[in-house]
Amino acid sequence: MLKIERIYGDEVLDSRGNPTVSVTAVLSSGAAGTAISPSGASTGKYEAYEKRDGDKERYGGKGVKNTLSAIKKEIEPKLKRLENITLRACDRYLLEIDGTENKQNLGANLTLAVSMALSRALANHYNMPLFKYLGGASALNLPVPMMNIINGGAHAGNNLDIQEFMIVPVGLGSYRERLRAGSEVYHSLKNILSLKGSATSVGDEGGFAPNLRSHEEAIELILEAVRKAGYSENDIKIALDAAASEWCKENSEKYVMPKTGREFTKDELIEYWVNLVNKYPVISIEDPFGEEDFESFKKLTGRVGNKIMIVGDDLFVTNKKRLQKGIKENAGNAILIKPNQIGTISETIETVILAKKNGFTPIISHRSGESEDAFIADLAVALNSPFIKAGAPARGERVAKYNRLLKISNMI
Ligand code: PGA
Ligand code: ZN
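# zinc ion complex -> structure
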């Protein structure tokens, strides 16, 4: 009878040098798994709760030492009672132990690391690679990488208000070719920026973070980098993440870009996006409006949703209830999937199933604060997700995911 033998946690560092939760689960068979929770910067208001100690004497209040104490007090003794364990049963019990809508008691950073560690331990118990354990024999598709090569917004100290300018090599054949193209364009862009005398320092997700005249200039530089690397606009498309919840002011109907101070009414912002889509090979815009603004999402989806993806990140927060509202109101046609926004792998899978059933494209995603843990690479293949967002094709915590996908490509 398969049971949980032991669960323990550790406080480790993420890619920004902030503490985060690591959990190891050991099963009665001796199989074990370890996992690390990621952490966001442009965090949505409706995300599950990220629990930190708040003790200003340690890590500026961001420590997770006390958060981890719930493992020995509550999680381990209770989960150890389960017999013939499955991931689903463990996750369901975790929700019961927490007892709140948004993981307020245990913290989603803790529940997710437990859920991920158990997924790995179970995969090891059954002698399967993680993607096979999670996705079974139908886990066959390698996602197209959406690589963030210019960083702005809350992820960089530059003057760009759009948070992410991504390249999406949809026109190329295999995952390996797509990754190569991403790397070549990244380096081509670095050369162009150097020649212009622009900074080639990078933001939190590994993309360059130069000061530029406009968002249009950022897109044009990327298109130039694509051409100079020997690719065409058919090979490589552009995706944007505005993260526009950061552009909302309390009690105001207007959007204000925080860095440039540019102001837009909702309708003006819709026109701004339509214009960019008409002018450039943009195939996806994420969070073009704030997390409350289902109405503008709906309007933009009506205008351009037949040609591009309108992606809800802060809008849906990987939450089935919020996605249901989007489905009902035709607000968006794609959903960003971040496991720590909801707090367990089982709930993450349920949200992806709901999205697919209703024609919403799922995009499995990292966070701006990441680690060497490449769990989302396996998850993307397990769920046959058409896309993965894992940052630039540079920096260890980002390439961990892209390299894991290369490994998986040799196993399917
Ligand atoms: P975050 O950014 O991890 O800082 O929230 C990623 C995103 O907005 O997609
Ligand atoms: Zn986003």
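# post-check
The chain has 13 helices and 13 strands.
Residues 40-43, 163, 241, 243, 313, 336, 365, 367-368 surround 2-phosphoglycolic acid (ligand 1) (CB under 6 Å).
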